[in-house]
From TrEMBL:
Keywords: Disulfide bond, GTP-binding, Hydrolase, Magnesium, Membrane, Metal-binding, Mitochondrion, Mitochondrion inner membrane, Nucleotide-binding, Transit peptide, Transmembrane, Transmembrane helix. The keyword Ligase does not apply. It holds the Pfam family Dynamin_M. Residues 157-431 form the Dynamin-type G domain. Coiled coil: none annotated. This is dynamin GTPase. Gene3D superfamilies: P-loop containing nucleotide triphosphate hydrolases. InterPro entries: Dynamin (IPR022812), Dynamin_GTPase (IPR001401), Dynamin_GTPase_CS (IPR019762), Dynamin_N (IPR045063), Dynamin_stalk (IPR000375), G_DYNAMIN_dom (IPR030381), GED_dom (IPR020850), LIS_MGM1 (IPR056495). Residues 78-103, 819-846 are annotated as: Disordered. It catalyses: GTP + H2O = GDP + phosphate + H(+). Residues 84-93 have a biased composition (Gly residues).
Amino acid sequence: MFATAIIGGAAYLQYQAVQAGTYAIDIFGKVKDGATSTASGLWEGANDVFAQMGRGWDKTKEDAGNVEMPQWMRDIYEGRGSSKEGGSGGGGPEPKESNIGAAGAGAATAAAFAMDSEGEDDTRSEDVAARDDQMMMLTRKMIEIRSLLQTVEQADSLTLPSIVVVGSQSSGKSSVLEAIVGHEFLPKGSNMVTRRPIELTLVNTPKAHAEYGEFPALGLGKITDFTQIQKTLTDLNLAVPEKDCVSDDPIQLRIHSPNVPDLSLIDLPGYIQVEAFDQPTELKTKIQALCDKYIQAPNVILAISAADVDLANSTALRASRRADPRGERTIGVVTKMDLVDPVRGAQILKDRNYPLRLGYVGVVCKIPQESRSLFSRGSANILNAITRNESAYFNAHPESFGESSQVLTGTPNLRKKLMHVLESTMSSSLATTSEAIHHELAEATYEFKVQYNERSLSAESYLAESLDAFKHSFKGFSDQFGRKEVREIVKHELDQQVLNLLAQRYWNRPVETLQPLDKLSESVQDPLESLPKADPENPLWHLKLDASTSTLTKLGIGRLATTITAQSLQSSIQSLIHNSTFSNHPFAIEAITQASENILRDLSFDTSDELEICVKPYKYRIELDDNEWKRGRENITTVLKGELHDCEAATKVVEEQIGGRRKMKDVVSFIDRVRKGDVVLEGDGIGGAGGFSAALLEKGKEALFLRDRSDIIRMRLAAVKSRQCSDKKNKYYCPEIFLDAVADKLTSTADLFLDAELLSKFYYQFPRVLEQHFRQLDDSTIERFAREDPKIKRHLDVVKRKELLEHVLKEMDSLRQLEAREKRNSSRGTQTEDDGRRRRKGWGLF
Ligand SMILES: Nc1nc2c(ncn2[C@@H]2O[C@H](COP(=O)(O)OP(=O)(O)OP(=O)(O)O)[C@@H](O)[C@H]2O)c(=O)[nH]1
């Protein structure tokens, strides 16, 4: 058993070490999963640090500093062109022969741009497609960094920009977002259903077939049914009370799909013109204030306006003009293009009144009616239906929307534009964000050093340490609490039982009533004073001792001894808990208490029955040797002295309650005289008598009882010490000694048995059950447990913050390496017009 314990312990220690090590990894993993496998290993090495994390923290650290390029990218950098074995868009159809090159290099973006949807050919050149892929990779990395920063306690300086979607009610905001995602998932209804910002992170998962959403803050897991996502969003929004109507507490939603680009978007409540009669009067200004908060720099504004409403009246454009007067970070989206004349539509997109550097995009995002019935429910993707419908419309009017028209139309182009814009905006924000992270990290590092002496801590390591310490103190306790201690407990209990038996059968003096003694019980007629001189054959004294012995042996020693030993163990566990770090953790107190109770209860059943069988022979015959008699005599002397001492102490208390020795003497002598018949009471004395109140008489009876008991004990102490009681053959004259010796015999059997059956088994099982219990806890429970202690919570927060910030900086480093390679590649002569446009100021400064 010992060997197994050691092996088990070592394995657990190892487990704990791994747990502690993977603590940070898990956190990072939470903000990034689902994108870990790709069609061609596209992101492996270069981008997906998260995927590497699964291989261990050390490996991750190593890799983060040494970012590996995927083959296809190296080929591009080394001028070998694109690899035809490059990734495919996962769930999408096979690329057409003429496009195979582009499909190889740019397939990752092809699906994300919705270019492989039916009716859409990828007409990009190889270089452009490859660069799109690379851009997507950079964007993804930045979004990862953004998500990581979201998990750090929020400070405004620690964010990367996002795309904020604003527009009036019914302008088509939801339709645009749903067209980008390919699913109906946003709350719908007339009752102002968007009440909170929805922070939507789209994660492109090229190889995965399943599309799903996650609410990281809710822990609902992966939701593949988009109507369920819609329902959850609706519930979360409607939970904002009618009287507040809007809240700035964002809902975070991540959607993973092979058909979405990597994007981070924020959907906001739609602007209203005027409050409805049942809406709060300040609602319009509240929505405005909320939107204004989000459309500040460096966020990109996606201003949605419907084509059938004059752009001059567009609330979204008016708001964006206030926040972005030079139109540098606003993308104008004109929805419902199908509702206006194509010529008019094209004019709108060329708007010169509010020129936008990022331009306007016209879209038709309505889900065709026939498709709605087919796709609207569950998890079917509506992307193809929308893009087909949309391109049919734009293709039908080439004079207005064709290549020569110089207007940008269509959801795929919008998606692409969003990715490009987000990437470039994020990259220009990196320098300032990086500075802010360095600053925050310096603060966290200082606190870590000064407050916590650089002692690393994770919820798992804290639990493991606490558990180890507790098991260690339990081991110490188990070394000290053995057979001897059980013996003391059991013997003490049986001593009390012996005293009770003696009091019942030998020492009984009736004091419950105020009555003359001659009317009372037999024991008074055979006073104990007469015992030393009684006839050795007097059956009364034989009967008394035999009956007392029988009562003692048939007391249910099995149950009694097992129960008090288990209780003692249980209370020792409680004090061990309260002297351990677990004392600040109600959850752990409950778990440990429960574990010990369960084990003790289970063990007690069998133990008590078996112990009862072991003491059975004593129920029929008890033989004592001289030594046992001698030991009994010594022990009962101590017990009687203890009892005498207790009686005297109790007498003192009663004396104080009565009001002094003198008053007590008066009451006691009155009751004495009544008992002797010297005073005859009228009535029963219940209402008081002899000038004493009823309460005083009650106390007097207590004092008399204690006095009588003290007298008897003194008398019996003298008897126990007498020559008569030195010999075991005089047992009927010395019941105290005999009963003590019997109790001693019972105790010896009990302690031996309890030591083997209860203690040993408990000592073996308890630490293992604890270990098992704590080992199977899930991460969130362990985290909750550790955070119950405010000091530990603070410590954990500092460690976590520091680790996250360090990790973010590392991610930024690898991003910088990728960017440097991109620059090298550009300078090797593959520079195109497109490259020039994509080179950004600020990139590489951080
Ligand atoms: N014909 C046409 N109808 C559209 C288009 N886009 C959206 N709609 C319709 O316009 C209505 C409003 O669209 P939503 O996407 O719900 O607009 P919203 O801005 O999200 O509205 P709120 O959630 O109320 O703020 C819906 O009935 C859509 O079907 C479009 O391009 N063409």
